[in-house]
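Obj.: predict assembly geometry.
Materials: sequence records (below).
Method: joint structure prediction, all chains together.
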Amino acid sequence: MNAPDKFTSLLSLTREPFPASHKCLIPGSRPDLNVPVRDVLLTNGETVSLYDTSGPYTDAKVEIDVRRGLPGVRGAWITERNDTESYEGRSHQALDEGLKHAHDHDAQRLAELRAGASALQRTPRRAKAGANVTQMHYARRGIVTPEMEYVALRENGKREWMAEYLANEERAKRVAGNPMGASIPRIITPEFVRDEVARGRAIIPANINHPEVEPMAIGRNFKVKINANIGNSAVTSSIEEEVEKLVWAIRWGADNVMDLSTGKNIHTTRDWIVRNSPVPIGTVPIYQALEKVGGVAEDLTWEIFRDTLIEQAEQGIDYFTIHAGVRLPFIHLTADRMTGIVSRGGSIMAKWCIAHHKESFLYERFEDICDIMKAYDVSFSLGDGLRPGSGADANDEAQFAELRTLGELTQIAWKHDVQTMIEGPGHVPMHMIQANMDEQLKHCHEAPFYTLGPLTIDIAPGYDHISSAIGAAMIGWAGTAMLCYVTPKEHLGLPDRDDVKQGIIAYKIAAHAADVAKGHPGARSRDDALSKARFEFRWQDQFNLGLDPDTAREFHDETLPKDSSKVAHFCSMCGPKFCSMKITQEVREYAAKKGVAEAEAMAEGMAQKSREFMAGGGEIYIPIQPAS
Amino acid sequence: MNAPDKFTSLLSLTREPFPASHKCLIPGSRPDLNVPVRDVLLTNGETVSLYDTSGPYTDAKVEIDVRRGLPGVRGAWITERNDTESYEGRSHQALDEGLKHAHDHDAQRLAELRAGASALQRTPRRAKAGANVTQMHYARRGIVTPEMEYVALRENGKREWMAEYLANEERAKRVAGNPMGASIPRIITPEFVRDEVARGRAIIPANINHPEVEPMAIGRNFKVKINANIGNSAVTSSIEEEVEKLVWAIRWGADNVMDLSTGKNIHTTRDWIVRNSPVPIGTVPIYQALEKVGGVAEDLTWEIFRDTLIEQAEQGIDYFTIHAGVRLPFIHLTADRMTGIVSRGGSIMAKWCIAHHKESFLYERFEDICDIMKAYDVSFSLGDGLRPGSGADANDEAQFAELRTLGELTQIAWKHDVQTMIEGPGHVPMHMIQANMDEQLKHCHEAPFYTLGPLTIDIAPGYDHISSAIGAAMIGWAGTAMLCYVTPKEHLGLPDRDDVKQGIIAYKIAAHAADVAKGHPGARSRDDALSKARFEFRWQDQFNLGLDPDTAREFHDETLPKDSSKVAHFCSMCGPKFCSMKITQEVREYAAKKGVAEAEAMAEGMAQKSREFMAGGGEIYIPIQPAS
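Observations (raw structure tokens):
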């Protein structure tokens, strides 16, 4: 049992609370409803309270045993609704682990892993016959679920500490966001959450078999969320690494994680991930289905796919990417593209359609899929299998034909009260981004948009977290509800631990930039708290309020390693003899001393002087045409 | 003489040509006018030709001796104009080296450095009595200078190779940029350059004492340029490091470099930098003037400042940041800011104005400054000393009052035919960026805008190259002509070699994203060439066409280190058994085989089927109001 030990020691690194931070719980209307926030204690005695995705891992008081999984936050809420039942579930099959990769598979090791963590293999629940257990179904019946209340408390956080920053009316008016059509209330109520879910403008991904999830919402009237992808592949990686990547990803702020495993042990990997995840987990079930048919796309069948959906729904996957918009009549539209079909799911389905010369079974069986989704409350993430793989292919007919189809499918899903979001590109130059949002809003009826980037240029391999963070920030501002991260390894290889972090931080920047631009009060206030700390030379507070306190501190210490410099009223850019912020403090004292009245009188005098000066020469405008 | 040897070995690292690349010269109308481009030879036999800022350093045929400086590209052009004269110039003074820092100054070492590279100390030129030697002055008289022709050839590059990518009409129309008011011709002529310079919409920073410069233009109708800052400070750094940083910065694509040194040996450092720089060098002369008065802002005088301008103009500095818009009547406007005055130059002048209760001597002596600028063709970079230091302070009255003043000063500068650009912020949330461009265009009459970022959020210390690349890309698209980079160390410490590179790459991404969005044909085509290489699994070409081939190759090799994988038709993301790009190639063959006619007929049949399907349930729209 070496592997779990290695894992536990890796995990201990990610369990450290953030500096000067502790987990705090906002109590809800019932004893088992408590919403976590991260309180950062500043050196001036103030507290700033931040949205916290990291789950119990950063709570020093909680004992974690990854072989048993996390406690089930939602356990009682689900059973109390009395519309679900336990059942034996589908039995575990060798094929579920991707056994077509038999040549590199170690059955002995798999058996050990499963035996060593048998608590992670749970008895599943499903809707009772005829019941629909989706959050949308409850919402449309006017029921405010504990999940909705949880989301409301979480989106608000502790508004008290923001008061100081929101009080300055002149400033608040000047920097007020441009919500670009979003309607973000000052205070999010549980009823508001219910209404957003009911009308399909937000989803709360929360499979009834994932009681460990801390509920969160994806919708344009909430904070912009980010998704991180993890997953082994045929070439590299291991179960332990993937679970640790999950904990690492949520530490840095991933709101959702997609498990894109394609290699061996994928069923057991998924058990480990879901049971240890406080954030919703998404998958692309066609990947596993393909493994079951040995990687031969044309051998896929509806039955194998359906069985895979049930397998994963029973494990607790919160949303499925389903590429049901890749229809046979659209495939030839990609033939003249610069980069064809680049979505893996899209090309699997394209290959299937071509091989059989038939319409996609995902499209034709869409209502059957809805029936499975609503029995577990799995949300749709309608995949954009025909998304552009280069700027040259952006916004073409293949892409938009699929998007319109996703709009049709959204209405079918909503007929079944199945929660739905829509995936978007990909590679889109800046000037073509807004059209993506406009088309999505128009055809998909405000279902949440969930985009990959988009990358704004194609020439930055090794830096596509940056080329895409630009597009992500812009489309987030425009109304996209969740941004799927891109790591520096995009197009080149598999992200390691540091790549995952780099991708997440870039996307936290993009999402926060979007929140600030939209006018989210919590976003603006965190910026202000850090700016104030920066201006007042509270170095520790500046680090601790940042997205990555460790890196900020390390960078600072490279130039000025002495502890004393962290309270000094200067920094390494200007040195001890001169500092612009120090001078500004003198300006402030000057203005206070002189009084604004005098300053304004002086301004008038100077303006007069300026007019004289300009009259003496400044106003003689020389035509700028060349003489000849 | 250990230091120069250390330097030479450092430099050899940055003299390696880029992989598969060689320097190529586009001949102009005279034998001494040859414009460098970097030709990248692809594995399929094609050549892609790129804009090249790296100067002779990446030309294996050129012998470099940093103690003698670069050859003077413009030497004959300047003397042939017969409007300048050599003169003895100002004598070197101990004070020029920042000797007020006497406690940490090593006079012996300085003497050695100067003696070991005495060729770098040149006899200066200036305009003959009554002459005006600015590019703007020539342009307004209808003269197309060699500098203007050089810029035209450089902006075009080799358009031949782009033909393939520009030929696809459907695509060209779909992805055509939105120039946001810019007017970028398909082919840049020397006459177009002249006209842009004449009307002040572009500048060619090219001091007559910097003949080594390879002329380039900054203007919204040319490619978006980037600036990198280097410079020692009172706390760290050395001359050798600064020169090597210059060569390193232009290798990665800096179009301009600002030397912001504030510490010891600043005069000699500047000689080294200018004589070895093929790109324009900018400075903030008030920094050196402050050194001369021992760091006491109130001791600054017009005479000391004027002498510093002449000192630097004689050395060949191409543009001066002058904070002449920081006027006494504006200073109290910053008193209620979250972060006051954060520009170093701005706070120096604010302190001076307060101490003397007098209007800024930079403002009052502005026409005297113009007289100096036009005698050497130093361009103005009118500094934004009151730029916001946080999102909370963005677009406030202090900032815009200064901007309007910079507009007034631009007209005075233009009266003297002095080339002028305008500096801009700083920290601006996304939704407030466009207003900055609008105000600048309105008040500054299309003089080129040169912004620092802007940073879109404040909570990313350690990652502000990313938070600002977002703002830089957006404002570049909106019409900003040059983007001043921000490194990961911003707000935290002094950038080292790797930070400089990270900052530059982030800004090359921003500038290129802006060029693509504006519709620059050269930008779009490079994206397309890389995308095509990516789609065709030409891994080496994908690396070599990227902004940083080394990093792309290294990232790829981490996962698949074998050389064989670089020609393999798969990558590490999907593995050898399945690959979306491989499937796309099958789609393409399928579409070609079936023929588009059949595909379209099939599409119609499918659409009919879809309509039937939808009629059977899809159209029953369930109202989404909750039941209760």
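Conclusions so far: Residues 361 and 506 of chain A are 37 Å apart (CA to CA).
To do: check interface contacts against the pulldown list.
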